[in-house]
Amino acid sequence: MGYPRVGPLVAAGQARLRTLSANSLVMARQPIYSSDAPKPIGTYCQGVRTANTIYLSGQIGLEPATMTLAGGIDAQINQVFRNLRAVAAAAGATLDDAVKVTVFLTDLGNFARVNEAMARYFAPPYPARAAVGVASLPRGALVEIEAILVVGESHG
Asked: What is the distance between the alpha carbons of residues 49 and 125, in angstroms, rounded to a whole number?
């Protein structure tokens, strides 16, 4: 025979759950901005925090005060890490909270230089990492790096 009234109740419950889930996701996202990192050059935040996870947008070697690209690969790599460190600090974190880093390089021959810089900006245990060779990056940058941080729990 069935239960004719159950269908509408289930549908109403599912709709309410979708509304609650969507609202809790929107309210849980906190944008992160730092005046010590370059202003976004597009429609994105420098970072976003949700619960204990912080997503740092990709940074290129722009100097925050002038919005000009640092000269040369070594200068760009160091500026990228300074920019990431500034956004992490604005979120109350450090680069040592990084669990995943993604590096984009226009020349994978510069990968060893990134390794050398990472040893200066991160403490062991180092985060997981991927390196991707790309044809080009915004503003003619040679390197872009993004990171995911987790705070408030041990991941060592």
From this structure: 22
